[in-house]
Write a structure and sequence with these properties.
This protein has an eight-stranded parallel barrel with strand order 1-2-3-4-5-6-7-8, surrounded by five helices. The two termini are about 15 Å apart. The protein has about 290 residues and is an alpha/beta fold. α5 (about 125-135) runs parallel beside α6 (about 155-165) and α10 (about 240-260) packs across α11. The protein has a single domain (about 5-205, about 265-275), classed as TIM Barrel (Alpha-Beta Barrel). The chain has eleven helices and eight strands. It is globular. Helices cover about 45% and strands about 15% of the residues. The structure holds flavin-adenine dinucleotide.
């Protein structure tokens, strides 16, 4: 089954996990996955260290997801430091395991580097290479930033690149976190007018901790904190972690409903290798029993 076919039938539900460090056991993450499977996600994606760190672990997890027989794994890949041969070796490995869904990314350029130090400068070039070489063997997802990628000078420029990335052969657009649903709606309308027609899977970062929200939005991604979220942070600024988390989950549930009301094609929860919050939100949004 392909995720693109699932998205034609229903709004997909999925989670993202990341590989544990090389010296840590896999079992805690496998337990988390077992709990996430209880809501029958359509897929689970596993992140990839930009410089290839934890690369082995990343494939181990994708394979464990596949072997569970519970859902489809999506394997993230980046171009950082990769030659064409490296990418082919990775794609061949995926196919040998039976993994045929990938999220093709440029990756964040490591500090002090000039460019990717690989054969591909942009994700679109890697997507085009994989598509040409492997035909339809892979479902290829690409990334998109509803509030503009931090390096792009303008929205117009970034959206033009999204269109080029789709035209290189991407099947699904998976988004960066975005707490500004109104801004997301404007972006969605614009990309559709620009000819980006592939399904859009929205990245949902649950609001669980004030410092994490501030760091994720302002620390690296250049994402906004809309007024209602700013108000929540102020109101619970000195509250206990537990009280903040409770209010944050209520906020996330309202946001998820707003996204659903936009008719998006999928909800992708950044589970941060924990099951509790994601499952609580799914339960509160009626997503636990959608099939
Ligand atoms: P690109 O599409 O190459 O875009 C990067 C920048 O270049 C943008 O500003 C774009 O406008 C510009 N650009 C694109 N094409 C051109 C062109 N032809 N000419 C000029 N400029 C161009 N990172 C990881 O390291 N590991 C992960 O597992 C990971 N998972 C992610 C999952 C999701 C859902 C998302 C949204 C992001 C993820 N990232 C991950 C982060 C991602 O790698 C970064 O956002 C990275 O900085 C850009 O990757 P990209 O694939 O969007 O790059």
């Amino acid at each position: 089954m392909k995720i693109t076919d699932i998205m034609k039938e229903r709004m997909s539900l999925s989670f993202e996990v990341f590989p544990p460090k090389a010296d840590k056991p896999l079992e805690p993450l496998l337990d988390v996955l077992d709990r996430l499977y209880t809501v029958e996600p359509d897929f689970v994606s596993c992140t990839y260290g930009a410089g290839g760190t934890n690369a082995g672990r990343h494939m181990e997890i994708c394979k464990a997801i596949l072997d569970s027989g519970k859902t489809i794994p999506i394997s993230h890949f980046t171009t950082i430091g990769k030659t064409r041969e490296d990418i082919r070796a990775q794609m061949d490995l995926c196919l040998s395991y039976g993994i045929n869904h990938i999220l093709a990314l440029r990756g964040d350029i490591p500090e002090g580097w000039e460019g990717t130090r690989g054969d591909f400068r942009h994700a679109s070039e890697m997507i085009s290479f994989i598509r040409k070489y492997y035909g339809d063997k892979f479902v290829i997802a690409m990334a998109g930033a509803p509030e503009k990628h931090i390096e792009a000078r303008t929205f117009a420029e970034d959206i033009a690149h999204l269109r080029m990335k789709q035209d290189s052969g991407a099947d699904i657009l998976m988004t960066q976190l975005c707490y500004d649903v109104e801004g997301f709606k404007r972006w969605l309308d614009t990309i559709r007018k620009t000819g980006v027609h592939i399904p859009v899977d929205v990245g949902i970062m649950p609001v669980l901790n004030k410092n994490s929200v501030i760091k994720m939005c302002l620390g690296t991604n250049g994402c906004s904190i809309p007024q209602p979220l700013a108000e929540l942070i102020s109101r619970y600024y000195n509250a206990s972690e537990e009280d903040f988390r409770k209010a944050g989950i209520e906020y996330t549930v309202r946001m998820v409903y707003e996204y659903m009301a936009l008719g998006i094609d999928g909800l992708h929860f950044y589970s941060l290798n924990k099951a509790d919050a994601a499952l609580e939100i799914c339960e509160a949004c009626g997503l636990s029993y959608r099939k």
